[in-house]
């Protein structure tokens, strides 16, 4: 009995004891195996054997020799000489400059005064937008340079001198920035995309002189120069080695042709001859005969050519570009068909089988919503009207880009039907019965069309039928748009308009401004704009409605001795945003970066930096969409309060009806304002129906960047809407107040609780 009681007491700890015993046993076995594997070599007693011949002493002692130093990590401690003054390290503007990266391709076009406005313009219109950097070099320039062309004139029309000066100029200005240099004449048509693809497959470690190799007249049979009419490619290493010898070549080499002169210079001083094939890549060319019809050229050599020469006139240049574009387009369509066939074949082997093939093949599947709130709605349209308008109206006229989009998609649908059913049937459009479209961010714009078509047979019979077709305009390749360089060091001038209704919120604004800008020494200034009603302006000597605000400003200036906060007083019944900005604009320099704020705005450094980065002089203005908090009475209903320590988005929404906040440069505003003044003449009442956003939208020609701004948060308040403003501005203010109350779920819950309270 006693033994049974002991066992019953130890039973819960039995698994632990067994585990410990098993672990100790396995560790002892492992230790014995390790000693057996590391058995040392039996050596006879005596002095140690000398190392082998040539072996370093470290190897004899079991340490790695000098050949293994690359594998030893070395920690280099930071040390700064205290006797030397500290010097701030200046970083480069772009990281690729600091890392030593180079641009890929530079293109130089040799032209002349006679052909600058003809062939050079044709080159610029056909291939210039495909090359990252293209310059035109000429001896003498004409009085007027064609638009959109960067021209370098050397002052002498002699061909050899032009080539010499061009090579010097390229080395001096671009020799350290590019890996490849492509030189062509203005009577050459080059396939830009093919040339760009060629340089991506070549190694930059070699001296490359690539083009159409030609023999020198009466010269060495082994030496070749690259024919200038078909263009040629030089590597950066070759250009750097060639530059010191250019002066000697100019003085010692006599030639009539500039391409022969350059080829002889490269051969004599560098020993590099022109080649048409390098590293498995071929430089294909095609020589045009007289009276050639590019549309009828079907030779394989023509279709594979990277460069075509000679091009006698502008029309021939455009015809060549059209033909090569058609050839390239056919290749792309064929490649798409091949890829679609491969996708179908591979999809049949997947678990989903053929059902897993999406339409169109190779395009992302449609977006699948996870809830009813994620459903993408369709917009209904006809050939004349759109039933989902940007301004919220139920019906508007189809015009502009939308009309062109609908016309193009209908033509494409009829064309695709004819391609499928010809020659048995021929379709022609009679009418668009119904049209639907939606934008799917995962694939592109989707269309569903109900078309009334007339189908004609080969025998002349016709029949009218309705047919539904579906089309997709897929998202194309994403491109990086070049933007001017901006910096975060720009000073921001805040402009705060204040009315009598805003007095309760000024204290919070000034506190946030002091905490987030003055305490952090951010490069930002503040200007207050006091808007007096005419009645208050008459009594300002006895009772100043803004006296409390001026006292708070005085306290801030005492606390921060280096800070001055000026104010401007304005008397008006209708505080037009444009008229107020006219007054402020005249009192600041033209290079001032304005941030037009509202009294409910909570200023922070994060947003000010985005204001600086998103506003570019003479290029772009920034209109942020602030985050508006909901009414806490409706959202929390006394059950919980908003978290005061959270610094991200609280319960609210982005107020798309408000355009009160804006970032722009004074010079851009003055330019747009001048155009507006010329348009409205002396009708100042028009300004009362406009905001600064309207001025930039209609009269600036700049990019208007409007995006949600999570760093710009405003607390809930019921704003007073001035009925003296225009109907559109008043309606927009009312909508902002209504949508800022609460979300639909919060409003539904409030109504439900109210109905329950009324029923009891």
Automatic annotation (TrEMBL):
Localization annotation: Golgi apparatus, Golgi stack membrane
Signal peptide location: 1-31
Q: What EC number(s) would the UniProt record show?
A: 2.4.1.-
Q: What residue spans carry the region label Disordered?
A: 42-74
Q: Which InterPro entries match?
A: Chond_GalNAc (IPR008428), CS_glycosyltransferase (IPR051227)
Q: Which GO terms describe its cellular component?
A: Golgi cisterna membrane
Q: Name one Pfam family in it.
A: CHGN
A molecular function (GO) held by this record is: glucuronosyl-N-acetylgalactosaminyl-proteoglycan 4-beta-N-acetylgalactosaminyltransferase activity
Here the segments flagged for biased composition (Pro residues) are: 45-54
Which controlled-vocabulary keywords does the entry list?
Glycoprotein, Golgi apparatus, Membrane, Signal, Signal-anchor, Transferase, Transmembrane, Transmembrane helix
Q: How does it sit in the membrane?
A: Single-pass type II membrane protein
Enzyme's top EC category: transferase
Q: What protein family is recorded?
A: Belongs to the chondroitin N-acetylgalactosaminyltransferase family.
Q: What is this protein called?
A: Hexosyltransferase
């Amino acid at each position: 009995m006693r033994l049974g009681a002991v066992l019953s007491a130890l039973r819960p700890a039995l698994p632990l004891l067994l585990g410990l015993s098993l672990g100790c046993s396995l560790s002892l076995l492992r230790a014995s195996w390790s000693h057996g594997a590391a058995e040392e070599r039996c050596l006879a007693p005596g002095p140690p054997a000398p190392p082998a011949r040539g072996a370093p002493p470290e190897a004899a002692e079991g340490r790695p020799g000098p050949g293994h130093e690359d594998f030893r990590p070395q920690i280099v401690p930071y040390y700064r000489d205290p006797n030397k003054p500290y010097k701030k390290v200046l970083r480069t503007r772009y990281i690729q400059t600091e890392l030593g990266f180079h641009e890929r391709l530079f293109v130089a076009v040799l032209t002349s005064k006679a052909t600058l406005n003809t062939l050079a313009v044709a080159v610029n219109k056909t291939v210039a937008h495909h090359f990252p950097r293209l310059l035109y070099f000429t001896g003498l320039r004409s009085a007027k340079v064609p638009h959109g062309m960067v021209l370098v004139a050397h002052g002498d029309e002699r061909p050899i001198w032009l080539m010499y000066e061009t090579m010097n100029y390229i080395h001096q200005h671009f020799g350290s920035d590019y890996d490849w240099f492509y030189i062509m004449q203005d009577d050459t048509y080059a396939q830009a995309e093919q040339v760009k693809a060629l340089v991506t497959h070549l190694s930059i470690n070699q001296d490359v002189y690539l083009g159409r190799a030609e023999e020198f007249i009466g010269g060495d049979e082994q030496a070749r120069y690259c024919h200038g009419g078909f263009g040629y490619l030089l590597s950066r290493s070759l250009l750097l080695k060639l530059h010191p010898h250019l002066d000697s070549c100019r003085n010692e080499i006599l030639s009539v042709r500039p391409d022969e002169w350059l080829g002889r210079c490269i051969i004599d001083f560098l020993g590099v001859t022109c080649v048409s094939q390098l590293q498995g890549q071929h430089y294909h060319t095609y020589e045009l005969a007289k009276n050639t019809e590019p549309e009828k050229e079907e030779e394989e050599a023509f279709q594979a050519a990277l460069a075509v020469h000679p091009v006698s006139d502008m029309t021939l240049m455009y015809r060549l570009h059209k033909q090569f574009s058609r050839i390239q387009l056919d290749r792309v369509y064929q490649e798409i068909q091949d890829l679609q066939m491969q996708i179908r074949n591979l999809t049949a082997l997947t678990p989903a089988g053929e059902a897993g093939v999406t339409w169109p093949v190779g395009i992302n599947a449609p977006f699948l919503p996870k809830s009813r709130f994620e459903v993408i709605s369709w917009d209904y349209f006809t050939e004349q009207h759109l039933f989902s308008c940007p301004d919220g109206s139920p019906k508007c006229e189809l015009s502009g880009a939308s009309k062109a989009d609908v016309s193009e998609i209908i033509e494409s649908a009829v064309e695709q039907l004819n391609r499928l059913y010809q020659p048995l049937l021929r379709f022609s459009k009679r009418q668009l019965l119904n049209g639907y479209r939606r934008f799917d961010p995962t694939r592109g714009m989707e269309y569903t069309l109900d078309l009334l078509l007339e189908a004609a047979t080969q025998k002349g019979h016709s029949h009218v039928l309705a047919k539904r077709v579906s089309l997709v305009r897929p998202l194309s390749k994403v491109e990086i748009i070049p933007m001017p360089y901006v910096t975060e060091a720009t000073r921001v001038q805040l402009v705060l308009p204040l009315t009598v209704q805003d007095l309760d919120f000024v204290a919070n604004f000034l506190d946030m401004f002091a905490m987030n800008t003055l305490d952090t020494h951010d490069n930002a200034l503040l200007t207050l704009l006091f808007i007096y009603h005419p009645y208050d302006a008459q009594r300002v000597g006895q009772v100043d409605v803004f006296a409390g605000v001026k006292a708070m400003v005085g306290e801030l200036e005492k606390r921060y001795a280096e800070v001055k906060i000026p104010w401007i007083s304005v008397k008006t019944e209708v505080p037009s945003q444009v008229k107020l900005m006219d007054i402020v604009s005249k009192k600041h320099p033209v290079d001032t970066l304005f941030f037009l704020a509202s009294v409910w705005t909570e200023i922070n450094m994060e947003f000010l930096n985005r204001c600086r980065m998103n506003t570019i002089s003479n290029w772009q203005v920034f209109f942020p969409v602030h985050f508006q908090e909901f009414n806490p009475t409706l959202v929390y209903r006394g059950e919980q309060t908003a978290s005061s320590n959270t610094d991200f988005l609280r319960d609210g929404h982005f107020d798309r009806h408000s355009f009160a906040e804006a970032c722009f440069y004074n010079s851009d505003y003055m330019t747009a304002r001048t155009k507006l003044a010329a348009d409205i003449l002396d009708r100042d009442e028009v300004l009362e129906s406009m905001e600064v956003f309207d001025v930039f939208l209609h009269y600036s020609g700049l990019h208007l960047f409007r995006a949600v701004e999570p760093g710009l948060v405003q607390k809930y308040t019921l704003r007073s809407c001035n009925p003296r403003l225009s109907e559109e501005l008043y309606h927009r203010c009312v909508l902002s107040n209504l949508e800022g109350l609460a979300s639909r779920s919060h409003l539904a819950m409030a109504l439900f609780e109210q109905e329950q309270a009324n029923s009891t």
